């Protein structure tokens, strides 16, 4: 076993250790511990990615060296390592880009708590991505929920408290369904490790036994995780939760947390239940329909949103719809498109949130659209970043969003006659709606306006950290848009390793 | 159907309880009742796991009197899962209670609809 194979476990433990270490520290110092931990995790994840790519196969890390049917395992393939790398990098940039606001929005005594929550969140994200054990997955899903809820409510305004309550209730309903699904799955298969459960599952399906309980299990797990990730009718908590928390929280929550549940769902689909069984159970069609509705309704709500954060939050609803639509196509191409869109959305949404904050700062921190008039001239970098993010979400060539839409459209063509037409139509409609609200905002921020008296003294200062984060995220957007082939290849090999 | 239901009475009870807890958590407007619903829902899952883990005529997995035959004992994992689950639900309950306290201090109400109305009033003024 080479040393690199310890890295997934190391990175999970490192984040937890950073959290514990930050407990007695002041906020200023906790910041450095957390940033160091997240940077290290990014390096280790990239190294793991390189390792599994060059080895060409995934590896299993047994916790405590207990052999397969009993022990707890971590598994790293190309897809897991890729996700871990992108997630930790996006988290790093979101933290650096929102650092000023963390210190401005949160009480001084609570800042170190914020960093503890961030550490816990990253460790649970990594554990959800890497775990090979279903119950470990559940436990870390709950840790993820608790950390995310803390990150929403730490700002102590009335709005964010209510948003946190709504988020918590929805999440708990989702995890309750997920838990009972897992309990039933364990009862029928007798295993919690994914491979062993999958082996029993294949036998059962082959013998035609327990078909109704299996269907119930599949629906419970799928619906539970779909609720947690905010699929369309369960999205009501999203706008407030993203709109009223500090900007790093919004960007981390929208681009990473809700996506980690989708990754877990995809993992369970492939590695526990088996993709053919999922397709035969028709549950994907349910996801497909709700994904399509979400794509349209999310965009419609975004058009009607009253302020820029809520607009971006509603746009997340639409993007989650895209991902589920890709899964719902029930083909491998659809799945690749869905995973690629998860990455696209992670790099774009964090860019949008950070730049929206920059624009808002340049407009006297008013939460109305009209105040943003000409903001791009007052804060050129944030304006450019918002432009890039918007164009990427709309799907302009050379940017990541274009490749996503291209992959979705190509996947739709191979998905069977019933789904082709409706997918393409909804994709087109949703793109137009995206263009309506994003370009409307872009035009607004680039409309020159005489600086009103009250803004003359507003000192727009883009700190080095913000510039660093924005430039990196812009770069990632372009990189994913112009060098998409290696990434889609990676995703394809990664999904191949799942089976 | 009938005898089957009777033989699995524990599981049936667990699923009914789960439904009760689920609807309470989802539909009730009062925060405390929501938390009670959450606990009923989680407890139902533990009942389900514990009932499935119980095998008639077998002992708890602690070696006594030198009986080493695995057939004499139940599988310890379901019980372990229940314990883990309890820890999770305790922490989630604590978080929900903390949220409730914060909300009550700010809006002097436990009713979510009432809280929303008061928040909107506060923002308008």
What overall form of chain A do the CA principal axes indicate?
A: globular
The end-to-end span of chain A amounts to 23 Å
Rg of chain A from C-alpha positions?
A: 22 Å
Largest interface: A-B, 29 and 35 residues
Total number of strands of chain A:
2
* SS summary, helix count of chain A: 21
Which quaternary structure do these chains form? Answer: heterodimer
Q: Indicate the CATH class of chain B.
A: Mainly Alpha
| Strand proportion of chain A | under 5%
Radius of gyration of chain B, rounded?
21 Å
The total count of strands of chain B amounts to: 0
CATH-defined architecture of chain B: Orthogonal Bundle
Task: Provide the spatial order of strands within the biggest beta sheet of chain A.
Answer: 1-2
Contiguous runs where pLDDT drops below 50 for at least 5 residues of chain B = none
What's the total helix number of chain B?
5
User: What is the beta-strand fraction of chain B?
Assistant: under 5%
Q: The CATH topology of chain B is what?
A: Helix Hairpins
Q: Ranges of chain A with pLDDT <50 over ≥5 residues? A: none
Encode the helix/strand succession of chain A as letters: HHEEHHHHHHHHHHHHHHHHHHH
Please specify the SSE layout and strand pairing.
The complex is a heterodimer of chains A (499) and B (125).
Chain A: H1 7-22, H2 27-55, E1 59-63, E2 72-76, H3 78-105, H4 111-130, H5 134-153, H6 158-189, H7 194-207, H8 211-229, H9 238-243, H10 247-273, H11 275-280, H12 283-304, H13 308-328, H14 332-361, H15 375-378, H16 380-394, H17 400-413, H18 417-445, H19 453-456, H20 464-482, H21 484-498
Antiparallel strand pairs in A: 1-2
Chain B: H1 2-7, H2 9-27, H3 31-53, H4 76-107, H5 112-124
Helix pairs in contact in B: 2-3, 3-4
